[in-house]
Amino acid sequence: MILIHFENNKVLASLSYFSVLFAPFILPIIVYFISQDSHVKQHAKRALVSHIIPVVLMIVLFITIFASFVPFSMNTTYEEPSLFMTSTPLLFVLVYMLIYAIIFIWNIIQGIKVLR
Fold it and tell me: How many distinct structural domains can be found in the chain?
């Protein structure tokens, strides 16, 4: 009976990480509040934080892109924008994609580690 309980905890903890594929926020929160095991709760918190990081970065990305285009809309002299102003949003998008890919792979690796 204890072995089955331990296996269920491992599956719940790993599902918190694997939920990046199907329910990034919902499943870690549910697992955190449903589970009584502190080990599972710890993994659910880590998974939730790793799922929140890309959302926070996306908000920063949108603010950055919006802020870089505001001067263009206020430009009444129709001057050419600088290379820095036009390339900054693209740079942030590339950095975001890299960070998201790293976090995605990290979640998969952590889910596999917990199952072992």
Answer: 1
